[in-house]
UniProtKB/TrEMBL annotation:
This is Membrane-associated phospholipid phosphatase. One of its GO terms (molecular function) is hydrolase activity. Gene3D superfamilies: Phosphatidic acid phosphatase type 2/haloperoxidase. It comes from Halorubrum cibi. Keywords: Cell membrane, Hydrolase, Membrane, Transmembrane, Transmembrane helix. The chain crosses the membrane at residues 23-50, 62-84, 119-138, 173-193, 226-244, 250-269, 281-300, 306-327. It is a multi-pass membrane protein.
Length: 332
């Protein structure tokens, strides 16, 4: 609904950014990678596959729920961008003002960082970063203290949000909305997954289905409802994008649908209490799922291929903990 958010929504931040030293801008161009979708989903997959009980009582449930929360976050971004359809700051469309002292290879990298197309509200990096690091801090609840985890997550999320303004691909209101949206999405996703910290009723003191204390936040998490919510929101985003003739947003929404459905299907194939995935299995699996993920984005001109590749990649990632026991049974 264009008009609710103004295309000219800056509050003077561009003048401040223009006064920053070039070195500072280059540093923030690197910081923004901390919330690139490929980096976040890679980080979440590593946690999901390898985390042990020193990080969470039910690390597989915690990891899958974190993936589901971030999937919901990107679905919300897709809907928001299609709905509001407002442009990015003028600096995002180029030409890029590349520092002359950067070597050639880094010059090309810098240019890709500071130029961006598509709609600008809300910021996908700010939303995804807040959701990912917030979910990790809440779900891997045995690492350090809760205060330190949340402080660390907040520092990274804010740094990413600032980076998007500093490299002039978003206005301040875009990233502020993104951070708030990411936080809300995490709460909703964890509540849907059954996290007792976000329920209205007191937690049951009995044992969970996998033998752990039900008072543990990760004991009975089920990410399926959050994955399905992401798919539903992505369907809504696709509908808005189609109605407005936004081809690129249709693709993004389609990827959201595939990710949500793929996550729900993948979770059906695991018990949730499997041990960490052995490295000997994880490395080739990472190569295969990574290739599917890259192919999904490389072949966006063919929406069907993109959806199939994305679904297969997500099913593979989420179902991976079930593969080692299957291999052992076949070998026996």
């Amino acid at each position: 609904m264009t008009g609710l958010v103004s295309a000219e929504r800056g509050v003077g931040e561009t003048a401040v950014v223009d006064a920053l030293p070039e070195f500072v801008v280059v540093v923030f161009a690197a910081v923004t990678h901390l919330a690139d979708p490929w980096f976040l989903f890679g980080l979440l997959a590593v946690g999901y596959w390898f985390a042990g009980d020193r990080l969470a009582a039910s690390p597989r449930r915690a990891g899958a729920t974190a993936i589901a929360a971030v999937t919901c976050a990107y679905a919300a971004v897709a809907l928001g961008k299609a709905w509001f359809a407002v442009p990015r700051p003028p600096g995002a469309v180029g030409p890029a003002d590349v520092p002359t002292w950067l070597p050639g290879l880094f010059s090309a990298w810098y240019e890709t960082q500071v130029l961006s197309d598509g709609f600008g509200f809300p910021s996908g990096h700010a939303t995804g970063g807040a959701a990912a690091y917030g979910a990790l801090a809440l779900l891997y609840d045995r690492a350090m203290t809760g205060r330190r985890r949340l402080l660390g997550a907040g520092v990274v999320a804010v740094a990413v949000a600032i980076s998007r303004v500093v490299i002039e691909v978003h206005y301040a209101v875009d990233v502020l909305t993104g951070v708030l949206l990411g936080g809300v999405v995490v709460v909703v996703a964890l509540r849907l997954a059954g996290d007792p910290r976000f329920r209205d009723s007191e937690p049951d003191l009995a044992e969970s289905t996998n033998g752990t204390d039900r008072t543990d936040p990760t004991a009975d998490l089920d990410p399926t409802p959050a994955f399905l919510l992401a798919a539903v929101v992505s369907v809504a985003a696709a509908g808005v994008a189609v109605a407005n003739g936004q081809t690129s947003e249709v693709v993004e929404a389609g990827i959201g649908i595939a990710t949500g459905v793929g996550g729900a299907v993948g979770w059906l194939l695991v018990d949730g209490d499997e041990p960490a995935v052995p490295v000997r299995i994880a490395l080739p699996a990472l190569a295969v799922t990574g290739a599917l993920w890259v192919g999904a984005y490389a072949l966006v001109d063919s929406l069907v291929v993109t959806l199939v590749a994305t679904t297969a990649a997500v099913v593979g990632v989420v179902a991976m903990p079930a593969v080692p026991p299957l291999i052992d049974r076949v070998g026996a």
